[in-house]
Every structure is written in C-alpha cells, then in structure tokens.
C-alpha cells in the first residue's frame, strides 16, 4: 500500500473543496472498490478525502414527492434493511441483499456503488427500473441527473471534477406495482452477477398498465428494455407475451465477453432471467 494523506471533512461542502484543490485526490467512503484499485497499483492518489464523518449524509428518508432520498453514505445494508425500502421498494431491497456478503454490504455505500460505475453491480439495475436519479453537489450548487444519463460506460459517470454524489432519489410508485430482482452468478452466490434483471409490473382489470424491465451486468451500462415495456402496455401478460418481452431483452443488450461468460451465453441467461422475473411479478402480490 502506498503512502497518502488522509483528510476527514465533516460536510460535503468541505469535502468538495478539498477535492477541488488537488487533481490527485479521491473521495473514499466504504473503500470496498477504491482500496482494491490502490492495492493493485491501478490508482495512486496522494490525498484521500474520507467522507465517513460527514454529518447527515447517510439518512434514508422520505422525499417531499412521496418517494425516498437515499443519502450517499448510507451503506448497502442500511438500504437493504430500511423499513421504507422493504415496504415500498422491495425490488431494491432484494438487489441490495445479494451484493457480495454481509461484511461488504456493511462497508459499501449506496452512493459509492453508483459513483463507481461498475457495470457488474446489482443496485444500479434495480435503481434504473425504479427511475432513480442521482443528486450531485460541488459544495456550492446541487444538480440532479437521471441514473440513465449518469452512467456513461464501464467505470465512467457524469460526475464532474469537484463533485460528489450527495444522494439517490427514488420517485414514488403507483399503487399495485409488483417487482422483483433476479441475479445469476457463475461461481459462488457472493460473486458479482453474470447477469441481473429487474422487473416491475402494474396491472389494472387484468391488463398491464405499466411494465418496466432493466438488465444489468452484461452491457457497458444497465439497459432499460423499452420495446418490451411497450409490448406489454394494455395487454394481458400471458406466457406468450412474457416470452416475447424476454426475447426483446436479449436483443436490447450488448453483452461483453469476460470471465463470467461469453456474450452469446450471457444473452441466453438474460432471456431466462427476464422471463422468470416477469412471471414472478405476475404471480406474486408483493409491491415493488
């Protein structure tokens, strides 16, 4: 491990000011990703700005619009176990629950997870299906960016120099939404996903009033399968329609070959997961 300075601000504004002073500085919260990069010599900062002492940045709280505001420093475990998440967004609780292991979930933060831009991560796929947005700040002003526009590519995001993720905003869901998150790993259950699928369905009078389908861990960024969502609108979610939606999911992704499988294999896995996730949404009565 190389030597570096460590600063511990108590506000996001102070943290942003420290990051703006030095180009070779980097914010650290849980450190589950950054410290690995440092140990491997892939990134060598001379200043780390520890965010753990920033006050009020780890709250999971109701938002004025009826949704939730997830403080960036809330751990993945905090999000997974928060009563408001489990009751109103169990889809997100499911995705957080299958991140690595309990030790990692207690260390890793939801803001760091999103800011890292790792395409092989579970929460961003669920957050994409929930139409989440990322709140960014440079200490002087705040701006909000839809998660779909925030994630630009593998380990590439829309964060500008001197900015930090302050929170993740999750809008309210219409009553009657049912959702699920399914993940497939090629090694241990604690492994990062070979593919992950988030599905959300709302029906009225037996027909689909709304459907959302997101696929992660196979393309450079998580993907919303808009064509599948359009197919379902106003229709009965029969096995044949679900099969057609799953097929659209396989066409929407651009799988990348890696240690977890070749592209063609991942495409097939996406189809299976999409079909199972949609069928589960139709069969169960849990809200998203």
Structure description:
The protein is of the alpha+beta class and 288 residues long. The protein has helices at 12-21, 34-39, 76-81, 83-88, 90-97, 102-107, 110-116, 123-129, 147-150, 226-232, 239-252, 263-283; strands at residues 5-7, 25-28, 47-50, 60-62, 68-71, 133-137, 142-146, 151-153, 156-157, 164-170, 178-184, 195-204, 207-216, 223-224. The chain contains 12 helices and 14 strands. Strand 8 (151-153) and strand 9 (156-157) form a beta hairpin. It is globular. The strands form 4 sheets. A 5-stranded antiparallel sheet has the order 4-5-10-6-7. The longest helix is centred in the last third of the chain and has 21 residues, at 263-283. Helix content is 35%, strand content 24%. It has 3 domains: 5-50, Uridine Diphospho-n-acetylenolpyruvylglucosamine Reductase, domain 2 (2-Layer Sandwich), CATH 3.30.43; 60-170, Uridine Diphospho-n-acetylenolpyruvylglucosamine Reductase, domain 3 (2-Layer Sandwich), CATH 3.30.465; 178-283, 2-Layer Sandwich (Enolase-like, domain 1).
